[in-house]
UniProtKB/TrEMBL annotation:
InterPro entries found in the cross-reference section: dGTPase-like, HD/PDEase_dom, HD_domain
GO terms for biological process, alphabetical: dGTP catabolic process
Domain HD/PDEase intervals: 50-194
GO molecular function: dGTPase activity
Protein name as it appears in the record: HD/PDEase domain-containing protein
One cellular-component annotation, GO: nucleus
Region feature Disordered, mapped onto this chain: 444-472
Top-level taxonomic group: Eukaryota
Pfam family, one: HD
Length: 472
């Protein structure tokens, strides 16, 4: 191979350099397909700035991985290895090749509905597409290196006679600190218009390898907490936004209904078919003349007109309460109705967990640090050694209820609140009720107050302005 460099200008990292062995993977249909897969899926329908794609995130992750390995291998007690550098960079570049239409909607919602017996993750798709590139493009690469790249993508380090610290870079199963998060947190915040306080460049600068593990300067302990807090904040405020979740559910229904036509269910086994899947599938459904797609087309039409599934209610599940999956179903909610005509299809139950990246555990407990005076000794820091204001609990579970039919919101909410009361759980803290027309009304609002409120909101802007006190 030659030493040709290709420069790509990026709003997050500036000019990124890629050598020709990386370019031969980037310039393929399998990789270029990521230009048509939104990084944040349907979040774009709620936050218009979130228009970035898996393509640029994959480039950014590859860029960071390349630079981190190069910097770490300058450590005096480590031997530089060009093969390791290439493998880690290619794993970072290709780690998201398996994302389907609208990213996590596909692997978290669509595939479990279509093939519930299959435990499939997008990492499995990434491994499949990686091998597709190598086979179709006749790339000369050692088979053992291919297996190593696959393992770096999935994060499974067992059975490899390689430096274990290399598995901390792309998909870190040890403590979740990796360049994938470095890029997507910074990139997502940038496109969402949010200010991120997490400085990934500091962690990269103050990292080193001790006992075959990447560790960080102890003064960066709060930066590590900031990484996980920012990730949680994005999940809480953005990734799991109520309206975004409603559109998620609609896209899922549309794709499931379209499966007999597009054979989505079997694409995860065939790279030739999988490469055809991207966010453009909604447009393909929308403008198809196939009568079998009528239901899917109606759902997509409702998305276009913003006639969305409606959020009804939610409640936090106390961490000491264990509710089996079969007790949180549409059937269970509907069974608590009172004289209504609800059926299971009217109700959607979403049970989601948000955490710091290691379920209910503190991920920083598994991060090791070093001191500038003892750079070859790694140690852990307890939460109290960092700050008394860092969290004591690291995961929360929420159950949300959505309605496919907006005319049934009130009945669904009443049934759900009977259900939560029986389990001694508190529903939405706003104490809002839903009236017969589907409007949220603050608890305690009298009909007289509500009438004045409607009169005000339905009046013209000039009329409203005349009623608002002026501050001189």
């Amino acid at each position: 191979m030659g030493d040709t460099l290709k420069y790509i200008n990026d709003p997050i990292h500036g000019y990124m350099e890629f050598e020709d062995w990386a370019i031969q993977f980037i310039d393929t249909p399998q990789f270029q397909r990521l230009r048509d897969v939104k990084q944040l899926g349907v979040t774009y329908y709620v936050f218009p700035g979130a228009s970035h794609n898996r393509f640029e995130h994959s480039l950014g992750t590859g860029h960071l991985a390349y630079n981190l390995v190069k910097r770490i291998q300058q450590q005096p007690d480590l031997e530089p290895c060009e093969t390791d550098l290439k493998c880690v960079t290619l794993a970072a570049l290709c780690h998201d090749l398996g994302h389907g239409p609208y990213s996590h909607v596909f692997d978290n919602e669509v595939i479990p509905r279509l093939r519930p017996e299959v435990k499939w993750r997008h990492e499995d798709g990434s491994v499949m597409m990686l091998n597709s590139i190598i086979d179709k493009e006749n790339i000369d690469i050692d088979k053992e290196d291919v297996k190593f790249i696959e393992a770096l993508i999935t994060g499974e380090s067992k059975g490899f006679n390689r430096s274990l610290y290399l598995f901390d870079i792309v998909a870190n199963k040890r403590n979740s600190v990796d360049v994938d998060k470095f890029d997507y947190i910074e990139r997502d915040c940038y496109h969402l218009g949010m200010k991120s306080k997490f400085e990934f460049s500091r962690l990269m600068q103050f990292s080193r390898v001790i006992d075959d593990e990447i560790v960080y300067h102890h003064k960066e302990s709060f930066t590590v907490y900031e990484l996980f807090h920012t990730r949680y904040s994005l999940h809480k405020r953005i990734y799991n936004h109520r309206v975004g979740k409603a559109i998620n559910l609609m896209v899922t229904d549309a794709l499931v209904e379209a499966d007999p036509v597009f054979n989505i269910v079997n694409s995860i086994d065939d790279p030739e078919e999988y490469v055809k899947l991207s966010d453009s599938i909604l447009t393909r459904i929308e403008y198809s003349d196939d009568p079998r797609l009528a239901k899917s087309k109606e759902i997509i039409k409702n998305i276009r007109y913003r006639k969305l599934y409606k959020f009804v209610d939610e409640c936090l599940i106390p961490h000491q309460v264990d509710i089996p999956e079969n007790k949180l179903t549409p059937t269970e909610i509907v069974s608590h109705q009172s004289g209504s005509d609800l059926n299971d299809n009217d109700v959607i139950v979403e049970r989601l967990k948000m955490n710091y990246g290691k379920k209910d555990k503190n991920p920083v407990d598994n991060v090791k640090f070093y001191d500038q005076f003892y750079q070859n000794e790694a140690f852990n820091l307890s939460r109290s050694q960092v700050s008394y204001l860092v969290p004591e609990q690291y995961e929360e579970e929420i159950v949300r209820i959505f309605a496919r039919d907006s005319s049934k919101i009130k009945q669904i909410q009443e049934a759900f609140r009977r259900f939560t009361k029986k389990l001694n759980m508190e529903s939405s803290p706003s104490n809002e009720i839903i009236n017969s027309r589907g409007y949220s009304i603050p608890d305690g609002y009298s009909p007289k107050k509500l009438k004045r409120h409607r009169t005000f909101t339905n009046s013209t802007s000039s009329e409203r302005a005349s009623r608002v006190p002026r501050i001189l």
